[in-house]
Amino acid sequence: MSSLPSTMKAILVPQNGGAEVLQYTESQPIPPLSDGQVLVKNNFSGINFIDTYFRSGLYPPPGGKLPAIIGQEGAGTIAKIAGSNPLGFKEGDRVVWIFRGGYAEYTAVPADRVIKIPAGVSDEHAVGGFLMGMTALSLVKEAYPVQKGDTVLVHAAAGGMGLLLCQLLRGMDVTVIGTAGGPEKCALAKENGATHIIDYKASSGPSWVEQVLKLTGGKGVDCVFDGVGKDTWEGSLEVAKRKGKVVYFGNASGAVPPFNIQKLASKNLSIMRTTLNNYIVTREELEFYANGVLDLIKAGKLNIRIHKIYPLKDAAEAQRDLEGRRTTGKLLLKI
Ligand SMILES: NC(=O)c1ccc[n+]([C@@H]2O[C@H](COP(=O)([O-])OP(=O)(O)OC[C@H]3O[C@@H](n4cnc5c(N)ncnc54)[C@H](OP(=O)(O)O)[C@@H]3O)[C@@H](O)[C@H]2O)c1
Asked: Would you say the CB of residue 162 lies under 6 angstroms from ligand 1?
């Protein structure tokens, strides 16, 4: 085993607040390993919108208390293995993981949350498509099992999740209606598989709800994938067809407020609120989605668009860009 330093670089959330609370340190102790964990030396860490919810206080901090190191995924090499090792990892294995504590040089991760990166897939693409790719697959396979011939609406279609959803749906023989803010984002969503695209930030013309209804001959769509939340949740119910479904999976504009369930009765609608973690509880489930995504990347069937790779110390700038709607695709931190 190569010798490990005692401290590392990391980004801490000392208290809840805006991106300015993120604190860069070079003297964070290397995390201790418990039995069944591996220590990963991260090469890249993935940035996800959920990191901003942990920072702002919309969600309780990972691990239950502050200060905390946020970051749900990383790619790098195994630096140390603790205790029994039933999955047969070796020091030096190139891996991608999903857990917590990713905005750091080293992360202690339960071994069953770690997946080997196949040859032919780069660290950037492995982590760039990992959490989001698995989420996108779980949405189209389990949250709403998409059928050939369906019409599906994807909000924020040029975002990290949006581009992956558009690409997956393109291969499923469905009509994809995407929404995106501004002409450049609209063009990108179209390139990635949206059949129709609506600029929901346009200041004139019909509303996005009116446009979706027009595109579907007044019927509405079979399913809406809504990760925008507060600004779109109600319109999403309006454009779902009779017996259709709205899958809420995020809060980019803020949380969906409590509402009267009677709203669903006018069209016998179904709604769902999903989180990836509940689709990948067992090792078998994690391997199903992880290998599904990595195989698609390796085969060139899922293109991971990296918006920008930020140095670890610039994590606050990265989060500001994400929250400020200035990004398309995936943001990474270079550790
Ligand atoms: N449930 C899960 O397990 C899971 C997993 C991964 C991600 N998610 C969710 O998926 C959603 C997308 O995540 P992402 O990381 O891929 O982000 P993203 O889509 O790349 O970025 C968010 C996008 O949302 C749109 N948006 C609309 N209103 C906004 C507002 N008021 N503030 C900020 N953005 C706004 C913007 O696109 P336009 O400019 O085009 O409107 C923005 O670029 C998030 O809600 C995230 O929490 C959920």
From this structure: yes
